[in-house]
Give the backbone structure.
Amino acid sequence: KRILVLISGNGSNLQAILDACQEGRVAGEVVAVVSNKGEAYGLTRARAAGCATEVLEAAGFADRAAYDAALGDLVEGYRPDLIVMAGFMRILSPAFIARFHGRMLNIHPSLLPKFQGLHTHRRAIEAGESEHGASVHFVTEELDGGPVVLQARVPIFEGDTEAEVAARVQVQEHAIYPLVVSWFCMGRLVMMQDKALMDGEPL
Ligand code: GRF
């Protein structure tokens, strides 16, 4: 399968997926990595892995619709079977999401439906949660609201800092994201009527 990864930053999840492809744990190939930030370190990771890279910055576009149309054309040019959002820090318009319906995955650093949006680790600590985690989900028009495929849980200990919790969650992200990508590439995982199905069964 042809995988395209959208990033904005460090790209540690991208790295986990690149490694999984290279080691044969994912029956797919990352055909391109697209960033909306030219300085994203993930681009360096992509080049090191021999992937095509593209940068499409929002500056210069009249509005979100214009940017998303250009991004959509760029993405479509690679004929991806799957679009993996890995720390892509832009909200995508319904028009973009409709274009790639059922073919987009995202990872969100919380146990969805808890803590949608930003600063999830800080908010989980402040809420006094003893558990936190990450969720891989299909992307639908509802921000951080698409059907969850797989979650990983981590404890929050007394006195934990935001950085400690973030690091603990990231270790789990790097385990669950390649796994979900592998299921999709094997054809075991699909989204139908905005529900995730694994081996034909609702998740
Ligand atoms: C991850 O924590 C992910 O959950 C969130 O953004 C972060 C990206 O990290 N969506 P990286 O760029 O993959 O290192």
In short: The mean pLDDT is 98.
